């Protein structure tokens, strides 16, 4: 089922996600709906907050992106990206590795707003998958960027919080308009 993606101004986007204690059929069904919603919106990542749920759960799929490469290492070995996409990641911890890198970013909760964001080029990730099994890997490139962006969402952090002040100032009118439109749509009629 395709879910509604909430936009900037919706309070769920600022909620810190709760840890998921039991990975059951309900969690798997939500993850499956989130994957469907992400694909429908042609995104590479989606966090539970973006469908109005304050949980430490997100999905990513960068397998089809050809112009922005990703790397994936498990147990120190480079592995095939395609074989591990999509990913459902639960209760994720992210450790930065490598130098900061600046690259373009967008967000399904901020339609048509893009900016260059600086983040560590590589990260080490520890999480649970949808079966409740622990996963641990290192990744780089677009996958590392997507995971950091989605992990931020699960902590109530948005990409606008990572923008240099000058960039945010340039976008401020657009951001204010989106925020106001979302708030207006939430008011009871
Ligand atoms: Zn986002």
Entry summary:
With 189 residues, the chain is of the alpha+beta class. It is 27% helix and 32% strand. Strands 1-2-5-6-7-3-4 form a 7-stranded antiparallel sheet, with helices on both faces.
Strand and helix layout:
Elements: H1 25-40, E1 45-47, E2 57-60, E3 70-74, E4 77-78, E5 87-107, E6 110-128, E7 134-140, H2 141-153, H3 165-186
Antiparallel strand pairs: 1-2, 2-5, 3-4, 3-7, 5-6, 6-7
The protein binds zinc ion.
**Could you say which overall geometry the principal axes of the C-alpha atoms support?**
globular
What is the assigned CATH homologous superfamily? Answer: Peptide deformylase
Distance from N terminus to C terminus (CA atoms, Å) equals 27 Å
The radius of gyration computed from the alpha-carbon positions, rounded to a whole number of angstroms, is 16 Å
Q: Number of folding domains?
A: 1
CATH architecture: Alpha-Beta Complex
Question: Ions, cofactors, ligands: which are bound?
Answer: zinc ion
Total helical elements: 3
Structural write-up:
The chain is of the alpha+beta class and 189 residues long. Helix content is 27%, strand content 32%. The chain has helices spanning 25-40, 141-153, 165-186, and strands spanning 45-47, 57-60, 70-74, 77-78, 87-107, 110-128, 134-140. The longest helix has 22 residues, at 165-186. It is globular, with a radius of gyration of 16 Å. The model has no long low-confidence stretch (mean pLDDT 96). The two termini are 27 Å apart. Strand 5 and strand 6 form a beta hairpin. It has a single domain, classed as Alpha-Beta Complex (Peptide Deformylase). Strands 1-2-5-6-7-3-4 form a seven-stranded antiparallel β-sheet, with helices on both faces. Bound molecules: zinc ion. Zinc ion binds at residues 107-109, 149, 153.
